[in-house]
Write a structure and sequence with these properties.
There is one protein chain. The chain has eight helices and six strands. The chain is an alpha+beta fold and 239 residues long. The chain has a single domain, classed as GAF domain (Beta-Lactamase), CATH 3.30.450. α3 packs antiparallel against α5. The protein is elongated and about 90 Å long. The relative contact order is 0.15. About 7% of the residues have low confidence.
Length: 239
């Protein structure tokens, strides 16, 4: 049986998004799994914004947590929605009673799932809101201050990791586009040389003889697909 990871190991794990085998879905699952391992909570889940800014369920440690996150998406409200919108932690330490009026449908779903408190931490970098990390507990009560600080630190490091991975993907796309453009330019210059040599023309006259192909129209929705985050897959739940 392997030993539980310590805090320093987890921070390194969450910051390491540059290796060749990096998968966003695995990365997000590690985030919620480590929260349950190291913090006094029984379940954790993650909502992340899609390309329209709408929260979607992307990871959870249990079916109960996944259903609660899905309930927020279904109702269009809940602590995760509030946290992402305001960009600050949202605490609901007494869902069955004191917090029931804030999110009546969500509170009822939480009670049926066996949770009495939820504490949510924003995933953000400066003004960019990525989503919200939710921690669930079976009994009412506030999350200890030290645990809350660790949870927010996990969310912050994971946010940086996601944005770093996104920047790398964007750089790879740009590099590929530049390489394609360069290759096209080389082929054009070679074609002009062949035409000039075969017909005894100068470069300008050879260029004028090249066939002109109109730019192909961009497929509908292509821009949106390029901007969509890579984490929108069916959410996984921990073992």
């Amino acid at each position: 049986m392997s030993a539980a990871p310590n805090l320093s190991t987890v921070f390194v794990e969450l910051a390491d998004t540059l290796h060749e085998t990096f998968e966003v879905s695995d990365f997000l699952q590690v985030l919620v799994d480590r929260c349950v391992t190291l913090l006094p909570v029984t379940a954790a889940g993650l909502l992340l914004a899609d390309h329209r800014g709408e929260p979607q369920v992307v990871a959870a440690t249990s079916l109960g947590a996944q259903l609660l996150l899905a309930a927020q998406v279904r109702f269009g409200r809940g602590p995760g929605f509030d946290c992402q919108q305001v960009g600050t932690p949202v605490s609901a330490p007494d869902l069955p009673d004191a917090d029931r009026d804030r999110w009546p449908g969500f509170a009822d779903e939480a009670r049926r799932a066996g949770f009495a408190a939820v504490h949510v931490f924003p995933m953000r970098l400066r003004t960019e809101a990525l989503g919200a990390l939710s921690l669930f507990r079976p009994r009412p009560g506030e999350l200890p201050a030290e645990s809350a600080d660790i949870a927010q630190a996990f969310a912050d490091v994971a946010s940086i990791g996601l944005l770093q991975e996104r920047a790398v993907r964007h750089g790879q796309v740009v590099a590929g586009q530049l390489q394609n453009a360069l290759q096209s330019r080389v082929e054009i210059e070679q074609a002009k040389g062949l035409i000039a040599g075969r017909h005894g023309l100068d470069v300008e006259a050879a260029d004028a003889r090249l066939p002109r192909t109109p730019a192909a129209p961009q497929p509908k929705g292509a821009a949106m697909s390029r901007s969509a985050p890579p984490w929108h897959r069916p959410p996984r739940t921990g073992g």
